[in-house]
DNA sequence: CCCGTGCCTGTTAGCGTTAACAAGAGTCCC
DNA sequence: GGGACTCTTGTTAACGCTAACAGGCACGGG
């Protein structure tokens, strides 16, 4: 005659344990001032009923949800995917859930919608994992009382960021080529509107300028292996004298190497190639790729650190300078001494 | 003297519009029986106050949250990452939020914890994106009234699944080698405990058996490029007569090719290699990789379809057979006729 | 003219939790 | 013995929304 047993609620536990529902709440929230004996009774009752607390109700009552929202652009890409993965684990360890909203097109309006949805969910903090210029504007428009962190974010006022030092990484990569004796060094840039693409371009330019070498126009690229391949063809055609290339990410680097190989150009014998990212398979490509390693796991963790700190602090926060995770050049076999 | 303006709630909108809060609710939920004029007034009031509905309160009142939970193992891997990405977009289009929980170790207990957390959040459905044997047990233990879908899931009773036809894909790959005249064909398997690894092994065996060819022990692998490289070394050492290899994923295939190249073995001249996954850069490796394409975007979309249907249906669902997304062999340059 | 039937709106009562307050019991000290 | 604590528990009122019910009004048919 009975319905299927509904999920037990606090009141049920309270009744079974012979206490008030508030006492159950106290046990759940580790309040001091609960007698050990009472706590045991409540715990036993919870176990017997298979009680699970309703986090929705909790969130409503506390006006705080212990959920971190993530706004991401393309979680398929190596960097965002890796960051998201470690971020989720770090968040869980800190007691937070993670809710992800991806933004298919990097238009400000789409970002704004994403923020709205997250706010409607009463998230207690937001991570912006969209390293585009368009995302920067959005952060400026974030509700002032909502803690936020940007990954690789530009200088949005009031929003702290966690970044891998892109300029420095590009400097390391380019200097490496210079030290090997290369003097004609090209660059394949990442997608327009991406901050990382600009920073890597910057680093490359700085290194060349510091060494007194010529700065060519960067070859266009969109992060994809295909665009790297196209850039490779273009390179041969336009600047056959180039012997070193700093490519803005590993996927494009691999496309570039393939184009060069097809054209009969030996890497690293005739042309040296450096990538960026250090994707998992970089060490197993032909040739093994020299590249700049980025510790995305660390980035994810630091994001949570910063965000949790902001959530904890009730007063107005100061902006502070970005948390910088260093990049590290990994020398493998795609670079060698300049041919003479 | 005033505090910073608190976020407006329904009552505020109602007051400004001169109606009851229930009418505001009706407008928000597209109820019939709201006069056009009233609707306009309410909408105007909402716009003026910048009202955002509180989804937490809504979820509590409706006892339903419009959130889909995803339990994933490693969202860094190509397949899960791609599936998750399209799933999130499809879910949003269907009016759902997505909450992700990753499980660092594939132990049943860890999966069970993940389910608990999702249930506590009152998610209205769950996608299990963890293609391991350990995850199958967990699905059997899912609350009976919680709609669920498994991706690449085994035969958990009552839980529908969306799969790419792995066995068929492996058959296509292996047959391709056979048709090219190869008779000594090895296999590098994926990580133990993964259902996909088993299915691909199966397909390989079936194809060989059907053709009357010898079935060797599969070489061990764990999906990583490194393990593919190791398998390549092992292969040369153990079975120098092998001329065709079906490798369970592209990353291992690329490691294998590198190992062979180092040993002076030409691909595809002396040994043909087929991968599985069709990662974005597969066409730009050296040589371009013949592989089996999986349409993960479609998998994500179908997951949402199935889940939404289950959520809508109030009565007990029948299990039905899995939704099968076909795999497709993409022939590139890493395979060629068997040498004689 | 009354009653039933659409339309439209308001009132009330939850949803399951936490917060705020109240209050009783025990302890300690003067 | 009384006041001021600390420890422990219970009662009540939110949190912001939706669901259920109860009207009021206009219209049409018997």
TrEMBL record, chains A, B:
Is DNA-binding tagged as a keyword? yes
- What InterPro entries is this protein classified in? HTH_LacI, LacI/GalR-like_sensor, Lambda_DNA-bd_dom_sf, Peripla_BP_I
Output the SUPFAM superfamilies linked to this UniProt entry. Answer: lambda repressor-like DNA-binding domains, Periplasmic binding protein-like I
A Gene Ontology MF term for this entry? DNA-binding transcription factor activity
Q: Which Pfam families match?
A: LacI, Peripla_BP_3
Which keywords belong to this entry?
DNA-binding, Transcription, Transcription regulation
Q: Does the keyword ATP-binding apply?
A: no
Query: Residue ranges of the HTH lacI-type domain?
Result: 8-62
What is the official name of this protein in its record? Transcriptional regulator, LacI family
**From which source organism is this entry?**
Klenkia soli
């Amino acid at each position: 005659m009975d319905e299927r047993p509904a999920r037990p609620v606090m009141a049920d536990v309270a009744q079974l344990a012979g206490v008030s529902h508030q006492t159950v709440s106290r046990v759940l929230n580790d309040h001091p001032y609960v007698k050990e004996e009472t706590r045991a009774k409540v715990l036993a009752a919870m176990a017997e009923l298979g009680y699970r607390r309703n986090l929705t109700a909790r969130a409503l009552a506390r006006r705080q949800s212990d959920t971190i929202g993530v706004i991401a652009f393309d979680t398929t890409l190596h960097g965002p995917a890796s960051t998201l993965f470690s971020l989720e684990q770090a968040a869980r360890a800190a007691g937070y859930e993670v809710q992800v909203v991806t933004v298919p097109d990097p238009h400000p309006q789409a970002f704004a919608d994403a923020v709205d949805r997250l706010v409607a969910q009463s998230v207690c903090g937001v991570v912006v994992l969209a390293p585009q210029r368009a995302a920067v504007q959005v952060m400026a428009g974030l509700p002032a009382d909502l803690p936020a962190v940007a990954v690789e974010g530009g200088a949005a006022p009031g929003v702290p960021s966690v970044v891998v030092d892109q300029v420095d990484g590009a400097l390391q990569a380019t200097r490496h080529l210079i030290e090997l004796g290369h003097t004609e060094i090209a660059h394949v840039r990442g997608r327009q509107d991406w901050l990382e693409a600009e920073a890597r371009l910057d680093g490359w330019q700085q290194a060349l300028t510091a060494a007194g070498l010529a700065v060519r126009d960067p070859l266009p690229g969109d992060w994809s292996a295909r665009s790297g391949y196209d850039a490779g063809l273009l390179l041969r055609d336009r600047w056959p004298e180039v012997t070193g290339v700093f490519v803005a990410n590993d996927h494009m680097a691999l496309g570039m190497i393939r184009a060069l190989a097809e054209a009969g150009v030996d890497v690293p014998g005739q042309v040296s190639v450096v990538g960026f990212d250090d994707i998992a398979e970089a060490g197993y490509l032909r040739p093994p790729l020299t590249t700049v390693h980025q510790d995305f796991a660390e980035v994810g963790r630091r994001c949570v650190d910063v965000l949790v700190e902001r959530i904890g602090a009730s007063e107005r926060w100061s902006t502070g300078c970005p948390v910088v995770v260093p990049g590290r050049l990994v020398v493998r076999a795609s670079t060698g001494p300049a041919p003479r």
